[in-house]
Design a protein that fits this description.
The protein is of the alpha/beta class. It is built from 10 helices and 12 strands. The chain has one domain (7-288): TIM Barrel, CATH 3.20.20. Strands 6-5-4-2-10-11 form a 6-stranded mixed beta sheet. Strands 1-3 form a two-stranded parallel sheet. The chain is globular and about 50 Å long.
């Protein structure tokens, strides 16, 4: 391949696990359906290595699913930090905060490896307030503040850019139905659909690059449900991600199209299909975890 300067990527999401201790209907990473993982250190290093010299990652987000459920997360973070200097790449873990108090090694990641921790405060909203979970997350937040202290790159305790703008944890559900009854929205107005998109972030999954989370992970969920032959989903299951052996021209074209609507947007609604944060319930599994 001809040499070209690495293309800047503002953020890439990398799943370390595909399951969660919260089952939030409308999760655009589909983690409420629990479809695999946890992934190990070598797997995740092998996924990103082929892209290291071709893309300049300003930020890498390790998430899922709930990343603190992955017993290898500490070593994954250290391995990624060794690949990407903290002076060049911000490395963050996005967690719902429920398990922070059970992960004292986060202190070392924050203080020694410049890892950022972002907490999405899902348990603070919902139809029923679970005080046990709320207190557990508050304890975790207090620990993060203590561990961050005066470090050069302190932990982030925020809700993420989209949620900060709304001040609520609403969900734009990209499919119709639930469980084995999920169906894509079928329309031709990809421009309107893109206007309501809440998941515009590049995904790195099993070494390949995907435009967004829904197109990256829906295949695994449909396979779990035995729906691989559903004719309504067939076009999206035939989506071809960008593979590490792509040409420079293919990479440039893929990244150029990343911010723009494409045919894959047909599966998502062309209107606000929102579940308000106050209408969600917290699953019992999280309470017992």
């Amino acid at each position: 391949m001809d040499h070209v300067s690495p293309m800047k990527v503002n953020n890439v999401d990398v799943h370390v696990i595909n399951s969660c201790n919260l089952h939030c209907h409308g999760c655009n990473h589909l983690a409420n359906y629990g479809y695999g993982g946890p992934f190990r250190v070598k797997e995740l290093v092998d996924w990103i290595k082929p892209w290291k010299d071709r893309l300049y990652f300003k930020r890498i987000s390790l998430l899922g699913g709930e990343p603190l459920l992955n017993p290898y997360l500490k070593d994954i973070c250290i391995a990624y930090r060794r690949l990407f200097s903290h002076k060049e790449t911000k490395l963050r873990v996005i967690t719902n905060g429920i398990l922070i108090t059970k992960c004292p090694w986060l202190k070392e990641l924050i203080q020694e490896y410049h890892i950022h921790i972002q907490v999405s405060l899902h348990v603070f909203t919902g139809k029923t307030k679970n005080e046990k979970l709320i207190n557990r997350v508050k304890e975790g937040l207090a620990l993060l503040e203590k561990w961050a202290g005066d470090t050069v790159r302190p932990a982030e305790i925020s809700w993420g850019s989209y949620v900060e703008a709304k001040q609520k944890l609403n969900f734009q559900v990209f499919y119709q139905g639930a469980g084995t009854q999920i169906k894509p929205f079928q329309h031709d107005d990809i421009t309107e659909s893109k206007k309501h998109c809440t998941c515009k972030t590049l995904q790195l999954y099993k070494s390949n690059l995907y435009k967004c989370a829904p197109i990256a992970y829906v295949g695994d969920v449909l396979e779990k449900f035995g729906m691989e032959d559903d004719p309504d989903w067939k076009p999206y299951l035939n989506y071809e991600p960008l593979t590490p052996d792509c040409s420079n021209a293919e990479l440039v074209n893929f990244m150029k199209m990343q911010p723009h609507p494409e045919w894959t947007c047909k599966m998502c609604p062309l209107y606000a299909n929102v579940i308000l944060s106050g209408e969600r319930e917290i699953s019992q599994e999280a309470v017992e975890s």
